[in-house]
Each structure stands twice: as C-alpha cells, then as structure tokens.
Write a structure and sequence with these properties.
Chain lengths: 324, 292, 327
C-alpha cells in the first residue's frame, strides 16, 4: 500500500535576529491511508513547524528542504497557488484554539459554504446542504439553526467540532489536527476524540494528530512518532511504543505521567534539564545531556533513525532492548 | 503560535536591547530633539541677529548674510526661528508635564478608589473628549484672552484627560493582577501595593504618552498662535510666523522655515515616542502556554 | 480542628443588565491539618471562585469560611489581618503572578518586608532559604521572571507563598500551564512540602490523573455545587455520583491500550440558568423521578464519604450509581 503522505529529509530553518535556527532537522515519516498518525513532543520540538511547512504556512524567510509526497505531488515544490488548492481540498487542518481559528464575524454556515464553494465549485443550495450534512456529521445539535449562528454563541467543544467540519468540508484524505483537545475539558475532549475516531473510520480519513499529551495519543493513534529537538527519536505502533518504550526520552516522558497503577506516594519522575533551544542543540545525540544512559559516543555522533524490531529508533545505547 | 513563541523567545533570550544602529528612527528622533533643545537653550549665542530687530532689508530671499532670508518687516528669519524654539519647546515640555501630573492624579485616584469617584472623574474626561481638541483649546484660549500663557493653559485643559484614562486603566488592571493579589494576601495594604507595584508599572506608558504628546503640544501651540490666540506680535513663535508667511506667499521663506521647524520637531518627538513604546513592550511578561 | 473549612459558601457575580450568576451555589469543604485535598471539576463548575473565596479575595454572598477556626474576612483596602497570613494562595498562570519588572529576589524580599517577621539583616539569607526549599539556586534571586521557565516560575510563586510560613496553601490550577516534566516537578515539590512542613493543601485542578496521584481526599464539583467527596482511592475505584463516574471514564490513559475515553453527552449549562432539581439531571444516564424537581442534599455515606445524589442513601454502602439504579 502506498503511503498517503511520505515525508523525507524535511529540514526547516527560520530566520532569527542572530542568524538561521534549524527548527526541524531531518525528519522522515509516512502516513498510511485511514491511519491516525501521532506526532508527539514537548514545546520547541518542531512538531508544529514540520506540519506548517507542508502547508506552506511558515513565516517569510523560512528555508525548507526535503520532500513531502502527497497524491503524486511534492508539497514542498508546489507553487503557492497549487499548494492552496491542495491544502484547501485534500488536506484539512484543525488548530488548538477554535476561538481564533474560526472567523468571529462570519456565521458558521457562511464559513462552511464559502470553503466548499471555493474548492468544489458548488452552487448556493448544494453548498448549504453540504454544510448541514457536515454539521450533522460532527454531531452539532440542530444543524439548521446552527448555520445561522456565530462562533461565539457556541461552547469550546462545539466550536472545535465546527472547526473539524470546516476542515472536512471538501472531503480531504488527510486531516492535520494540532493539539485539538488541549484547551478542552476532559469530558468534552473525550467527545472530540470519539468523533475523530468515528470520522476516520466512516470516511477512510487519515489523521495526523499533533499533541504533547501521550494519554490522548494513546486513545486514538495507530502509530506514534516522538519528536525531540527537531527530529524523530522513536516511532512505532502505539501499543509497542507506549508499553515498551525504547528511547530514553520516550521512557522519561511516560515516567513523568501519573500512572494509575503506581502507589500514590511515589514521586513522579521529572526529566532533568529542559529541551534545548533551536540555536543551542547539543552535538551528537540532542538528548544526551539529559539522558541517564548516555555513553561517550552519544556526545559526538548523532544516531540515525534506524528500523529495529518493528519500530524505528535513534539511539546508540537502546537500554531497554531486552526488557520485552 | 509556536513560531511567534519561538521568535519572541529568541528576542528575549538575547536579553539585550537591539543595538542603536538597528533603530534608525529612534536615533534620528533623539538627535533632532536634542538639537532643538540645544538650540533653545543657547539661542542667544547661536542666533546671528536679534529676532526683533527690524533693521535689515525687507523681504530678502535667503542669502549668505541671512540664511533663511528676511521677513516683511526686515527681521532675520533664521534668528526668529531659533528664538522660536525657546517658545515652543520649553512651553510644550512644561504643559505636558503639567497635564501628565494632573491627569495622572485624577486617573490614579479614580482607579484606586473606584466607585463614585471613578464615575465622576471619567465623566469629566468624557466631557473634554467630546470636543475636538483644537476647537476646545481655541474656546478656552479665547475665553482666557490672548497670550502665550493662556494658550498654554488651554492646551493643558485639552491634554490632561488622556493621561487620566491611561493611568486609571493601568491602576485598575495592575491592581487586579495576580502579583498584586499575592502581595495583598501576604498582608500588604492597598496603598502599599499602589506605590510599590502599580505606579512603577504606570511610569512607562505615561512616558510614552508624554513624549508623543509633546509633538501634539507643539502643534497645538503653533496652531493657536497661527490663529492669533497664542503668541502675540512681535514675539517670534513658529506658528505665528507661519501665519505671517501665509499672507506673503510670494516670499516663500517667511513661512516655510518656521513650518519646517514645526515639522522636524513634531516628527522627532513622534519617532522618540514610538521607539520608547517599543522599548517598554518586550519587558512586559509575555504570557502564554509553555505547550505549543 | 481542621485547617480550612468552607460551609455552604455561595459566590455570586452581578452582571450588568443580565441575571446574576451563582458561580458557587452552596459548597462545603474541609481540609484537615497536613492533608492534601484535590478539588476537581470542569469549566463553569465554580472551583476558581471557590478558591478565591476561601482565601478572602472575593466576598462570599453566603456561608462561612474558617481558617483554623477563625473567620476569613474578605480583603478590603486595608492590610489583611495578621492572623490570616498563614492562609496563602498560588495562582494558575506563572507568567502573570510575578511582577515582570522586578527581580525575583526583590519580590521575595518584599514579601518578607510586608510580613515584617524577619529582621532586615536576615532577609537575604531567608530569601535563599526559600529558594532552596523549592529547589532553586540562590543565583535565581538576581534574575527577572522572564528568564525562567513556567515550571520554575511556579516554584518561585510557591516560594513567595512559603515566605509567610503558611499552614494552608490554596493552589488554583498550579499545573495547568506546564508541560509534563514541569508538572511532575511541581507536583513532587508540593507533596514533599506538605509532608515535610505539615502543610495543608487545597489543590484545584481539572487534571484528574495528577489529583489522583497527589491528593488524599478528592472533592468533585459541578455547576457550583459539591457532588461528591471522599478519600482518593475508594472514590476512584467506586465513584458514587454519576458525574464522578463520567469524569473518571473520560480520562484518557497513556498505556497504549487504545482505550477510547467515554464522552458525557450534553453540555455544561450556563451557570446563570442552572437546571431545576439536581443540576446534573439533564445529562445523567440514571435520572429518575425526584431528580428534575428536587435538589439532593449532601449525604454521608460509609467510609467517610459524602455524595449528593438521589440514588444514594444516608449511611448507605459504597456502591456505584449503576447498581443503585438497578435496585
């Protein structure tokens, strides 16, 4: 099965007052059709920038290298116009804060129909029908009156559903969701996760889910890749990765989370140090200064992301290899 | 959000201000402003002639002896422009300071006591804001009578409300901020937090406002003089000189040079004010989620 | 005597031209000495208002708040009464709870100055001591807030509260703006301080997983009222209130099992227009006769637990709502 999205050697550099900073440094991954692909990492790991690069949403002056094959085209080589056509129609994007990603002055119906008419060329009534259908799909109650309402009249969870509806308006094959539930209450989040899961099954949709929250990742992702300092340090099937993490960073991320089984008074394990800023990435393996298992070579050689035992791992030491 | 966060972090991490040569407007503004101040202070030493002396050839175009030419009464324009700075710049400084003090006091009291005091003060502010500044200044100046002092007073009346609004807003918002609440929980009285936490935060924006207001003040003062309500003849004041020049258009130098003086002074203070505003911005805590 | 008690507290906000909002509509809570109580609830439940009322930042329109037996008088323009200084608060946003224009050391020294307990010459040492208590080096004193990470800032805020030598610390979502590692650090710090200094904590959070890990007792709030309270472990394994049950079922798990959390149908109503009777009834899968008409009172159930639900009975056994509904 050919991958829906294949990213190779993605490198993004952004201009700063003191020269260029490499935010994404050689990232490869593949998203299969009808798959939820998780991109996990903390702040500054480059996970959002790598997605923005695919959609041409980077700030002026950004330098992008690599290849992003989608539907037979390389997204990174398309002209702005062609890219807009693809990103409007075949790729949908949902952001974290629905209050700022929805236009506050346009009615919900208008935002939906505008999108659909532009990219699919539908007439007014066909577009309105489609808008109503979309709102139904995302389980907005009373879609007909919702069409005439404005974003501020809805709760956070509802607005996020509307944002998802807009993203799906043109029937894309790929949905990119950047921290879609971070700002929501836990019961509302559960609703959105279920919605995404259901939509992906019904519409054969692939989802790239970007989040720092590994619990959210665990709920719906099929494959997860862990980002650190602009590169992928480990990637693999969800259950394998979360139950048997092999990269020390993945393990550390999981150890920092409260475990339902752990005795209550055991302290949570914090990762010492902080993620490096893009201008100060350590030589060799970027994680080595914080890694309790680092050996000499970790300070000099950057480990490549290599396939091993059904996953991909970038580590010289692989300390948990025999803990299966 | 992450790109913006990244850029802001890069700026903050430097910890230093952008060096002067990267802020051309600030430099230009400061240089011109300082130049005018120097000119104002040393006017008698710099000016080639007595600004009131009418001994020279009438309406001469700019020449070696008279760089800015002479006006219709035979006075040296250059000297008048130089002495004009003694009127515009210091008076503007004085009245902006006065307006800031009065407005700041009213705004501070309103924000601190809230309730009825706040309501009353703000209605006064609204009252002044209801009129276009130049009209109100004209009315006040006309009522008080012609003359420079009265024009200055009129401008103070027009200028103080902006400060009141700004200071009140800051006192309210900083007063409600969490670090002030923490101080209150530790046992600090409201008055103590006012002086230790609130007012220091107020100084910055007020300074920015005052610098920009200086430009307005010079313009207003010149405007009033132009209309005959401010400086009276034969005093050398830029606005009234422009008024003169408007009558004698064929002798373009009479009105143009004082006009340029107004223009450069106003521009300089505007540049300065803008740069000051930018200077104060990055220092304020840039809030936001750590998570991208 | 409990360290902090709230009895039937109500907090009302007037809105100009609209109905008044009872953000807290009669809530009670007790924090014993040295105990960590976690208050959980989602948006609109009123937990922040309750937190502010508990330290006196906001005047309750009804009910009482007692700190070590004394009335917690709300703040006026005067200085807060000395005997309340042992009741301190840490806020949610570490970026706005510190003065951005002053150095850390100066802000901590100022706290000591206000408290006026440490003589001038000992203040510097005490500032270093406070920084050390929260795991920060003494060099931190010379820096400005923007030079620290969110987790470090939060620790500085805790250090400031500790300057008062408090016996009760109310924390309003202290971990919400932090990433996982910083959350772990601050959570560990809080538990450590609580045990070491016998500090009572009222920890308000929407993150059930962390609360479950850290708190001794959990209180669940919905739309301005307490719906359930009890020791953490039994509450987690046998929730008594349908909302508690729903909350727990909605928490995602990072265990790789693909467990899809359960959603709760409906939306949180506008606090200004709460449903009649039991506030949760429109969304409750077990709602029956009395629920839409009469608001259930908080009952004591076995195991030192309380719950406000018509399905449960006074002094009844600890049984899940589903089973109670069946019987």
């Amino acid at each position: 099965m050919t991958a829906l999205l294949e990213v190779e050697g993605l490198r993004v550099r952004l201009p700063t007052p003191s020269g260029f900073a490499t935010i994404v440094d050689g990232v490869d991954y593949q998203v299969e059709p009808a798959q939820v692909f998780g991109v996990a990492g903390e702040s500054g790991s480059g996970k959002t920038i790598s997605m923005l690069a695919l959609l041409g949403l980077l700030p002026a002056g950004a330098v992008v290298e690599g290849r992003a094959a989608f539907g037979g085209k390389d997204l990174l080589r398309l002209s702005a116009r062609d890219l807009r056509a693809v990103s409007g129609r075949d790729i949908g994007m949902v952001f974290q804060d629905p209050m700022t990603s929805l236009h506050p002055m346009l009615s919900v119906g208008r935002q939906l129909t505008e999108h659909v008419r532009r990219h699919l060329g539908l007439g007014r009534s066909a577009a309105t029908q489609r808008a109503t259908d979309l709102l139904e799909q995302v389980r907005i109650p009373d879609p007909n009156s919702a069409l005439h309402a404005y974003p501020h009249q809805f709760s956070g969870g509802m607005r996020q559903r509307i944002a998802i509806a807009i993203a799906l308006a043109c029937g894309p094959r790929l949905l990119i969701a950047d921290e879609p539930t971070t700002a929501l209450d836990v019961t509302v989040q559960a609703g959105i996760l279920r919605l995404l899961d259901g939509l992906r099954r019904e519409h054969d949709l692939s989802v790239v889910l970007i989040t720092h929250d590994l619990a959210v990742m665990s709920s719906i992702a099929d494959r997860i890749s862990i980002f650190y300092a602009g590169r992928v340090v480990e990637s693999g099937p969800r259950d394998e990765l979360l139950q048997h993490p092999r990269h020390p960073y993945t393990r550390a991320l999981l150890d920092a989370l409260p475990h339902p089984e752990a005795a209550r008074d055991t302290p949570l394990v914090a990762i010492k140090g902080t993620p490096p800023s893009p201008q100060q990435i350590p030589a060799g393996c970027p994680y080595h200064p914080r890694c309790p298992y680092a050996i000499d070579v970790c300070a000099t050689d950057d480990p490549p992301l290599a396939p091993i035992d059904g996953r991909r791992l970038a580590c010289h030491v692989d300390p948990f290899a025999d803990l299966e | 959000m992450s790109t913006i966060a990244f850029r802001m972090r890069a700026r903050r991490r430097g910890g230093r201000l952008r060096p002067a040569w990267r802020q051309p407007l600030a430099v230009v503004g400061s240089v011109i402003a300082v130049a005018w101040l120097v000119v104002a202070i040393f006017a008698p030493l710099i000016a080639p002639y007595d600004p009131l002396a009418q001994n020279f050839a009438l309406s001469q175009a700019p020449s070696g002896a008279h760089l800015f030419g002479t006006d219709e009464l035979g006075r040296d324009v250059l000297s008048r422009v130089i002495f004009g700075s003694r009127v515009s710049v210091p008076i503007a400084l004085l009245l902006v300071t006065l307006a800031a003090l009065i407005g700041g006091l009213v705004g501070g009291v309103a924000g601190y006591f809230r309730g009825i005091v706040d309501g009353f003060s703000m209605r006064m502010v609204d009252l002044v804001f209801a009129f276009p500044p130049i009209i109100l200044a004209m009315v006040v100046a006309a009522v008080l009578g012609r003359g420079l002092q009265n024009a200055a007073l009129a401008i103070v009346v027009v200028a103080w409300p902006s400060y009141a609004r700004v200071v009140r807003g800051l006192v309210l918002s900083v007063g409600d901020s969490e670090y002030v609440e923490s101080a209150r929980l530790l046992g600090s009285s409201a008055r103590r937090t006012l002086f230790r936490d609130v007012l220091p935060n107020v100084a910055g924006p007020v300074l920015v406002l005052a610098t920009l207001d200086l430009a307005n003040a010079i313009l207003l003062l010149s405007g009033l003089s132009f209309l005959g309500l401010g400086a009276q003849p034969p005093q050398a004041e830029w606005g009234s000189m422009v008024a003169d020049g408007a009558q004698y258009f064929q002798w373009w130098w009479i009105g143009t040079f004082p006009g340029l003086a107004i223009f450069t002074a106003v521009l300089a203070f505007n540049f300065l004010g803008d740069s000051l505003r930018d200077l104060f911005d990055p220092q304020t805590a840039w809030g936001g989620d750590e998570r991208p | 005597m409990p360290a902090l008690e709230l009895h039937d507290v109500e907090v009302v906000y007037e809105r100009r031209g609209r109905e008044r909002v009872r953000a807290v509509a009669g809530a009670s809570l007790t924090v014993e000495r040295g105990q960590i109580v976690g208050l959980v609830g989602e948006s609109g439940c009123g937990k922040s208002s309750l937190a502010r009322a508990s330290v006196g930042l906001v005047r309750p329109s009804a009910g009482t708040v007692l700190f070590e037996g004394r009335d917690v008088t709300p703040l006026t323009r005067r200085a807060r009464p000395r005997d309340l200084v042992g009741l301190q608060m840490v806020f949610q946003n570490p970026y706005s709870s510190l003065n951005p224009r002053r150095k850390i050391g100066s802000q901590l020294a100022d706290a000591l100055d206000v408290l006026d307990v440490t003589p001038n010459r000992d203040r510097r040492a005490r500032v270093e001591e406070l920084l050390d208590l929260v795991g920060l080096p003494s060099t931190a004193a010379a820096r400005y807030p923007h030079q620290f990470s969110g987790g470090q800032r939060q620790r500085i805020a805790v250090a400031r509260a500790l300057a008062a030598d408090p016996s009760v610390l109310v924390l309003d979502e202290p971990l919400a703006s932090l990433d996982a590692s910083a959350q772990a650090q601050v959570a560990n710090l809080l538990v450590d301080l609580s045990r070491r200094l016998s500090l009572s904590l009222l920890l308000i959070s929407h993150d059930l997983a962390i609360v479950r890990h850290v708190a001794d007792v959990v209180s669940v709030m919905y739309l301005g009222v307490m719906v359930e309270t009890g020791p953490t472990q039994p509450l987690w394994s046998v929730p008594l209130h349908p909302y508690t049950e729903a909350l727990i079922a909605a928490v995602p798990r990072p265990d790789g099992s693909g467990f899809l959390p359960e959603a709760l149908p409906g939306e949180v109503p506008d606090p200004a227009l709460p449903p009649s009777g039991c506030r949760f009834h429109p969304r409750c899968p077990y709602a029956f006769d009395p629920c839409p008409t009469e608001e259930p009172a908080l009952l004591a159930v076995a195991g030192g637990r309380t719950v406000a639900c018509w399905l449960q009975e006074e002094d009844g056994p600890q049984v899940r709502p589903a089973e109670r509904a069946r019987s």
